[in-house]
Amino acid sequence: GAGVSQSPSNKVTEKGKDVELRCDPISGHTALYWYRQSLGQGLEFLIYFQGNSAPDKSGLPSDRFSAERTGGSVSTLTIQRTQQEDSAVYLCASGRSGSGETQYFGPGTRLLVL
Amino acid sequence: GNSVTQMEGPVTLSEEAFLTINCTYTATGYPSLFWYVQYPGEGLQLLLKATKADDKGSNKGFEATYRKETTSFHLEKGSVQVSDSAVYFCALKGGSEKLVFGKGTKLTVNP
Questions:
Q1: Are the C-beta atoms of B39 and B48 separated by less than 8 Å?
Q2: Which burial class, exposed, middle or buried, applies to A34 when counting CB atoms under 10 A from its CB (0-12, 13-18, 19+)?
Q3: Pairing status of strand B23-26 against strand B32-38
Q4: pLDDT 10s digits, B27-63
Q5: Looking at the complex, does the CB of residue A72 fall below 8 Å from at least one CB of chain B?
Q6: Longest pairwise C-alpha distance within chain A
Q7: Is the pLDDT of residue A1 over 70?
Q8: How many C-beta neighbours within 10 Å does residue B95 have?
Q9: What does the DSSP 8-state code read for residue A29?
Q10: pLDDT average, residue stretch A47-54
Q11: Of B3, B64, B60, B13, nearest to B35 (Cα)?
Q12: How far apart are CA A2 and CA A5, in angstroms?
């Protein structure tokens, strides 16, 4: 079946501009996660959505970052007033909740802030 | 907090060599443990997992055993192939739903 999809695959923006990154999870998966992969920091958790519960935002690095999940499916990660240190690959994953459950990752959006 | 420490690479081996990538963790409670792999130009894929102590995860000739006494989850393969060249990430999922990753180990297998 279809996996997790993300768009755009690449995004180049100027410092100070806002960007929106989209994630379409696997159908039926109630849990959705955003991670960031950068050379300096490795793979970092950003935010987690589970059903209709309040999201776990504990990994968001600043208040310039926000995310929403509409209708329990598609999610958008928004970065306002982008900075050069925001340059990274942003990964979305989906899965079923539970400690042993696998998270399935999308191909990522490569963001470059000039 | 929870953390994962894995052997830093890069690791370069010849085809058919034995592979070990060490991974140790710090966590409260009883986390689930995972190895993910990222092939060149591709996304992260689950390689194997173990959800309780003494479980062995295996896939594509790779194995890892969840050792609670040594808090380890080392990845092994008896005979690597060129196609195994990739970056390997050890990860855990503890009390919260998020995955905590190690920094990754880049493996290059030469023919």
A1: no
A2: buried
A3: unpaired
A4: 988 899 999 999 988 889 999 999 999 999 999 999 9
A5: no
A6: 40
A7: no
A8: 12
A9: -
A10: 89
A11: B64
A12: 8
**Amino acid found at A4:** V
The pLDDT tens digits of the residues spanning A11-24 come to 999 999 999 999 99
Name every chain B residue with its beta carbon within 8 A of the beta carbon of A43. 89, 91, 99, 101, 104
Q: How far apart are CA B14 and CA B12, in angstroms?
A: 7
The pLDDT-based confidence of B16 (bands split at 50, 70, 90) is: very high
What single letter denotes the amino acid at residue A41?
Q
For residue B21, give every residue at least 6 positions away whose Cβ sits within 8 Å of its Cβ, in sequence order, or none: B6, B7, B11, B74, B75, B76, B88, B90, B105, B107
Query: A77, A59 in Cβ contact below 8 A?
Result: no
The CA distance from A17 to A87, in Å, is: 13
Q: How far is A78 from chain B (nearest CA, A)?
A: 20
Interface test with B, best of A35, A105, A109 (most B CBs within 10 A): A105
* Partners of residue B94 in chain A, C-beta under 8 Å: 99
User: Which 8-state DSSP code applies to residue A58?
Assistant: T
Q: How far from A99 is each of A63, A83, A95, B87, B92, CA to CA, in Å?
A: 28, 34, 11, 24, 9
What's the one-letter identity of residue B99? L
For A109, the token pair is: 């959006």
Residues A69-91: b if buried by 16+ CB within 10 A, e if exposed: beeeeebebebeebeeebbbbbb
